[in-house]
Amino acid sequence: MTPAARVQAAIDLLDLIIGAARDGGPAADTLIARYFKERRYAGSRDRRAVRDLVYDAIRRAAERPENGRAAMVGLAREQAELAALFDGSTHGPAPIEEAEPGAVRGDVPAWLAPLFAAPVEQDALLGRAPVDLRVNRLLTDRAQVAPLLPEAVALPGLPDALRLPEGAPVEQSEAWKGGLVEVQDAGSQLIAAACAAEPGMTVIDLCAGAGGKTLALAAAMEGRGNLIAADTIRSRIARLSPRAERARAGFIQTLLLDQGHEARALADLAGQADVVLVDAPCSGTGTWRRNPEARWRLTPARLDRLVAEQARILDFAAPLLAAGGALVYATCALTDREGRDQVDAFLTRHAGWEAERLTLPLGRPHGAGILLTPGHDGTDGFFFARLRRTA
Ligand SMILES: C[S@@+](CC[C@H](N)C(=O)[O-])C[C@H]1O[C@@H](n2cnc3c(N)ncnc32)[C@H](O)[C@@H]1O
C-alpha cells in the first residue's frame, strides 16, 4: 500500500468505527481485524501503520466525529506530513479544502467531563497502557516466572503482578500458554485482592464476564471451596472454561443468569456467600487507554440505564451474603454516579451494612470506597468498595 492508500484505509475504518459507536456495533479492534481479514494484500507494516493512524485519530477526538474523513482531517491539521498525503492519488484521499471541517482535539466529551469524580486527572485518561500480568499462584510464583519474561518488572505492593511494556506479545510466550500468567490490569488485581477470598469459602463473582477476576479469586482460594462465576451473557461465560483449564482452576462453577430474573437462579445461594463480587456493567470511563472509542459510545441516556442496572444488581446481590460476609462493588468507571454515589445510595437503601476501610498499596479513598486512576496509580480507572453485612 502507498502511504496515501494507508491514510484512505484509516478513513474507511474510522467510518466503520464511528458507525459502530453510534449504533452499538462491534469494538474498534474487532472491526480492524475484520477489515484486514478481507484485504489480504495489506502486509503487516501496512496493517500496523493503518492501525496507528486510526488510533491516533480516535485518541485526539473527544466527541464522535461526523465521519472518518473529518477525524483524519483533524489529525492532519496537526501533522504536515500527514496532510501532504491527502494528494488525490489513485488510492489516496482527496486534498483537504481550507474550509473543510475537521474533528476538534479533546480528551473528554463536554457533557461527561463534569460527571467525573473530582480527583480524576482527566488529561491522563487516554495515555498508553502497559501490559500487566498476574502470576497464577495455582501453578507458580513471581520469582519463578520473572526469568521467563526478562522484560517484565515487578509491581510493588502487588505480590503477583508483573508489568511489560505496551503492546508486548505476551500471548505468544510459553509462560502465558502454560497458564503461568494471565493478562490483568494491576487495578483489577487489586480489586480481586480486596475480596480477600480464602480457601474453603463460598465466593460468587456475580458479573464474571469471561472470568478475569474469577481466575484471580480461584488462585486466592488455592483451588478449594465454592467459586461461582455468574453472568447474563452465555458467550462471555463460555470463554471462561478454556481460560480456567489453562490456569488449572477446574473447580470454578458457572451459572447463566436470566436478565431481569437473576434471583431465580441464585435462590439456593441466599445467605450462603462469604464474598460476592459485583464487577458491574459500567460506562468503562476508566478504560479509555485501551478502548478510546468507548467515549464515542456513551450517551446520557445510556449512563442513566447503567446506573439503574448497577443499583438493581446490588439489590439482588445483597441477600446472597451470609452475616459477616463482604460485598465488593467495583466498576471500571470514574463517574461518581456509578461509584461513590452508587455505594452511598446502597447504604441508604439497605440497613445492616457498613463500608470497610481498606488499606491498599494503590488508590485514594473516595467516599466509602477507593478510587484508582491512570494518572495517580498507573492502572486503569476503577472505583471499588467493600461492604460488610453486619446483620
Ligand atoms: C465489567 S464486566 C465484567 C468483567 C469481568 N468481571 C472481568 O473481570 O473480566 C460486567 C459484566 O456484567 C455482566 N452483566 C450485565 N448485566 C448483568 C446482570 N444483570 N447480572 C449479572 N451480570 C450482568 C455483563 O455481561 C458483563 O460481562
Automatic annotation (TrEMBL):
Pfam families: Methyltr_RsmB-F (PF01189). InterPro entries: MeTrfase_RsmB-F_NOP2_cat (IPR049560), MeTrfase_RsmB-F_NOP2_dom (IPR001678), RCMT (IPR023267), SAM-dependent_MTases_sf (IPR029063). Gene3D superfamilies: Vaccinia Virus protein VP39. GO terms for biological process: RNA methylation. The active site is at C332. GO terms for molecular function: RNA binding; RNA methyltransferase activity. PROSITE patterns: SAM_MT_RSMB_NOP. Residues 112-390 form the SAM-dependent MTase RsmB/NOP-type domain. Keywords: Methyltransferase, RNA-binding, S-adenosyl-L-methionine, Transferase. Signal peptide: none annotated. S-adenosyl-L-methionine binds at D231, D258, D279. Belongs to the class I-like SAM-binding methyltransferase superfamily. RsmB/NOP family. This is RNA methyltransferase. It comes from Sphingobium ummariense RL-3.
